[in-house]
Write a structure and sequence with these properties.
mainly alpha; three-stranded antiparallel beta sheet; two-stranded antiparallel sheet; 22 helices; 5% strand
Length: 413
């Protein structure tokens, strides 16, 4: 809150000749405020007010200190006292509006910012905050009007005005206009993280400029390497350009930073599925469902719960492989499909296989289960074994389930 109130200290010129002692208390308070000693400053300001109860400046400074200490009610009360003494000072209304805004009392904040603007027509900070409130109240055209005013005045935080106007235009589905505003915000401030982030979202959802989106969100990550949603967005963009390995890495980083994000698991599952990592994809969809993403269960139902789905997937894969392999004709493909089987010496299970050309593929799901854990146990380095729908550690119990009999075992490696 400090930056919004510092203007109080430097913009006002008061006649403090009434009480030299009160003046000294105020001077001492300002020194303590500059050293972030707000408790000590309040003590000095209490003394100043006891010497001069008509000092609106002392009340305003004390309001600032109380705001810094989280005493919103006390801050509002002191600004109100300052206004009662000097009702024509725009900064008192503006700063009380900031306290209301932080306290989510938006309508009171709106009234104070409007009053500040009526007293000082070029108060760009008041326009900016009022526009933000209009946006929060879904009054997007009024918000845009306030941001337009800042831009026309030509001072204050103009980059923020363009950025906020872009957000309002996005809500009105004026995506082209929003994109131009984000461009302008970045032109004015090349470290404007929010503008890069929002522009990335538009490039993914509006222009399909996925490479541009990757550039923007990579910029965001360079400023904030711990922002999980940025890695998730970059994963989405990489997946869209078929960089599935890169997408998996980014979704994995998002999960590392935000382990309870179902969307990162869902995104990683889709990328893994594209790389034919079916079991791993199903595990990620399962985790996404556990974290509250109901749509993930539909993906499991479609791709993980039926042997026919595995057959359809591999059938499609074989078809695509041979369709685009100019060296193998359809006739040759048919001649080279050979059914066979092999025995897993670890547990004696016998599996059907199919040979296509020089490659041998399993025609059944692997069922090797030396141990078992529930879906909540994960690791990037330690191998674990899972049975879909089973949440326990007893191998015998897991093998007794219908899912084990039908679908086999899932692995994290």
């Amino acid at each position: 809150m400090r930056p919004l109130f510092l203007i109080i200290i430097c913009l006002f010129s008061f006649s403090l000749s009434k009480s030299q002692t009160a003046t000294q208390y105020i001077d001492n308070a300002i020194k303590k405020m500059n050293n972030n000693n707000f408790v000590g400053a309040i003590t000095d300001l209490d003394n100043a007010i006891s010497k001069n109860s008509r000092s609106d400046y002392a009340y305003a400074l004390r309001a600032y200190c109380k705001g810094e200490l989280g005493d919103s009610r006390g801050s509002v009360n002191d600004f109100t006292k300052a206004i009662a003494i000097n009702p024509n000072e725009a900064e008192y209304y503006y700063n009380r509006g900031v306290v209301y805004m932080i306290s989510k009392n938006l309508h009171s904040a709106l009234a104070d910012f409007t009053k500040a603007i009526s007293l000082e027509s070029k108060h760009t900070s008041a326009y900016l905050n009022r526009g933000t409130i209009y946006h929060d109240l879904s009054m997007y055209n009024k918000a845009i009007a306030d941001y337009n005013k800042i831009i026309s005045i030509g001072k204050g935080n103009i980059a923020a005005a363009y950025f906020n106007r872009g957000n309002a235009k996005s809500m009105l589905e004026d995506f082209s206009g929003a994109m131009k505003d984000y461009d302008k915000a970045i032109e004015l401030d090349d470290k404007y993280v929010g503008a890069y982030y929002r522009r990335c979202v538009l490039k993914i959802n509006y222009t399909n400029d996925f490479k541009g989106a990757i550039q923007d969100i990579t910029k965001v990550i360079s400023f904030d390497p711990f922002l999980a949603s940025a890695y998730r967005l970059r994963g989405v963009a990489k997946r869209a350009i078929n960089d599935y390995r890169g997408a998996i890495d980014d979704f994995g980083k998002a999960i590392e930073l935000e382990p309870n994000s179902p969307y990162a698991y869902d995104g990683r599952a889709e990328a893994k599925y594209k790389l034919h990592l079916i079991e791993e994809a199903c595990l990620d969809w399962s985790r996404a469902g556990e974290l509250g993403l109901d749509a993930a269960y539909k993906e499991i139902e479609k791709y993980c719960n039926s042997p026919n789905d595995y057959y359809d997937f591999y059938h499609d894969f074989y078809f695509d492989f041979y369709e685009y392999d100019d060296e193998i004709s359809t006739t040759t493909e048919q001649e080279q499909i050979i059914s066979n089987s092999f025995t897993d010496t670890r547990d004696g299970n016998i599996y059907k296989t199919v040979q296509i050309g020089k490659q041998v593929w399993m025609a059944e799901n692997l069922a090797y289960l030396p141990s078992v854990v529930g879906p909540g146990t994960e690791s990037e380095s330690t191998p674990y074994y899972y049975v879909y729908g089973y949440d326990g550690t007893n191998v015998t119990d897991a093998k007794a389930t219908s899912n084990y009999t039908t679908y086999g075992v899932l692995y994290n490696w």
